Amino acid sequence: MKILVLGDVMGSSGRTALKKNFSKIVKEYEIDFSVINGENSADDGKGITKKIADELFSLGIDVITSGNHIWDKEETTKFIEKETRLLRPANLVKGSPGRGYGIYFSKNKKYKIGVINLMGNVFMKKTEDVFLTAKEIREKIILKKNVDFSIIDFHGEITSEKMAIGHFFDGNSTCVVGTHTHVPTADTRILEKGTAYQTDIGMCGDYNSVIGMNKENSLKKFFKNKNATKHFPSEGIGTLSGIVVDANEETGLAEKVFRLITGGSLEN
Ligand SMILES: [Fe+2]
Ligand SMILES: [Fe+2]
Prior knowledge:
Blueprint: E1 2-6, E2 8-9, H1 11-28, E3 33-37, H2 50-58, E4 63-65, H3 76-82, E5 101-105, E6 112-119, H4 130-138, E7 149-155, H5 159-169, E8 175-179, E9 189-190, E10 196-198, E11 203-204, H6 215-222, E12 240-247, E13 254-262
Parallel strand pairs: 1-3, 2-11, 3-4, 6-7, 7-8, 8-10
Antiparallel strand pairs: 1-12, 5-6, 9-10, 12-13
The chain binds fe (ii) ion (2 copies).
């Protein structure tokens, strides 16, 4: 089973890169299941609309995760109730619309895949305790009991929380990836008990920017220049950034993992 997980899709640059390359990647790496983080996929880099979610699903993406930007577009609070393939962090304050995890089928309907979305507590919006939520979910989504594979997107600012969650799910999950910082880390590996891990899988968007936003305007903002405007996405050629996990069908654990970084200024 080959799983593709891609980081935060940023504005039209990220979406264009996906449209151009997604099916090629699926074919080349024989991807069976794909998850992307869509929290920045709207034109202004803030949130996701129904139209864009549908557009991403029509490319063949199986599940869209998110993070702190999930409610930036008001319509999301409504359409998320019916759209079970769009997740918001599971530890958002109790009573939030939508769901934070789900069980999905592989395209051949042979396998059940759990996808879990969590959001860190440090330097992020106020949420429920992410470690307590993770513990509850780990008792509900169990490899080889009710799912064949599982994928965790931990949306967070700090590396230590992400690494701790990686170890917490080690042996209980196919892969744990971090998102939100929009910069890929170089610690891609398989943890001791078989879970593939990367602290942050980066962004799908234009890296000739400040984490996806126009660099000139970002600099003006940092220098407190009065001519600075609201942040807006940089629209150069986008890079797709994420990981490919080759997982064992018997154990649901990772056998191989590698970083996939293609196109734009990060082409490797
Ligand atoms: Fe993001
Ligand atoms: Fe974020």
